[in-house]
């Protein structure tokens, strides 16, 4: 099985930044004193919220890029 990797290595950094920004917007904080005391269920719930919002924002960004690209032609 192949592992998914970003086409651009800098994309991982940008996606991580986006992940923390969205989590912060949702009130989900990763505090420095966090020691992994969340259950799998809690992590799944929070991850779902963050992942869903990340996907939504990435789709919006892609749509905007396509619209902007078509305006240039």
From TrEMBL:
InterPro entries named in the record: SASP_alpha/beta-type (IPR001448), SASP_alpha/beta-type_CS (IPR018126), SASP_DNA-binding (IPR050847), SASP_sf_alpha/beta (IPR038300)
One BP annotation, GO: DNA topological change
UniProt GO MF annotations: double-stranded DNA binding
Keywords: DNA-binding
Similarity field: Belongs to the alpha/beta-type SASP family.
Name the record gives this protein: Small acid-soluble spore protein
Species of origin: Caldisalinibacter kiritimatiensis
């Amino acid at each position: 099985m192949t592992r998914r990797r970003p086409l651009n290595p800098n994309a991982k950094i940008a996606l991580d930044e986006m992940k923390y920004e969205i989590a912060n917007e949702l009130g989900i904080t990763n505090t420095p004193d966090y020691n992994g005391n969340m259950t799998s269920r809690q992590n799944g719930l929070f991850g779902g919220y963050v992942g869903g919002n990340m996907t939504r924002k990435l789709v919006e960004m892609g749509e905007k890029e396509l619209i902007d690209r078509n305006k240039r032609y």
